[in-house]
Amino acid sequence: MASLYGRIVASSARRHVLSTSYRFASTKVTLADPLEHATGLEKRELLAKVAGNDNPFDAKVIKRGAGTRAAPNEIPSAFDARLVGCVCEEESTSITWMWLHKGEPKRCECGHWFNLVHKAPV
């Protein structure tokens, strides 16, 4: 009896698998490209990434240079002001925040200078 039950389960499982794979073998399912469905700011972001700009909003960390008054660290922004954080010491766990305004270089507490430069918006 157990053998008969085992054969019935195995044959029904086999039929189900075969019918499922046979049914989908004739149709090819593809997912739509996200770029086709995106609109607005999301679409402009995806187009910038396709063009090779992996940081369209300049949200990644910018390594600080010499930062002298004559050659300040340039911070890109599409606006007239931007909030900037400076990690003054390499192993520091705190960030010094300051507002940068267009045309006004600003000095951090650690002595590094920063300047806001224009960048075209995304």
TrEMBL record:
Keywords recorded for this protein, A-Z: Metal-binding, Zinc
- Gene Ontology terms, cellular component aspect? mitochondrial envelope; respiratory chain complex IV
Which superkingdom, per the lineage? Eukaryota
Does the entry feature the keyword Metal-binding, yes or no? yes
The GO annotation for biological process reads: mitochondrial electron transport, cytochrome c to oxygen
Which Gene Ontology molecular-function terms are recorded? metal ion binding
- Is-annotated flag, keyword Lipoprotein? no
**Pfam families, from UniProt?**
COX5B
- PROSITE patterns per UniProt: COX5B_2
InterPro entries documented for this protein: Cyt_c_oxidase_su5b, Cyt_c_oxidase_su5b_sf
Positions of Zn(2+) binding: 86, 88, 108, 110
- Residue span of the signal peptide, if any? none
Protein known as: Uncharacterized protein
**Organism of provenance:** Phaedon cochleariae (Mustard beetle)
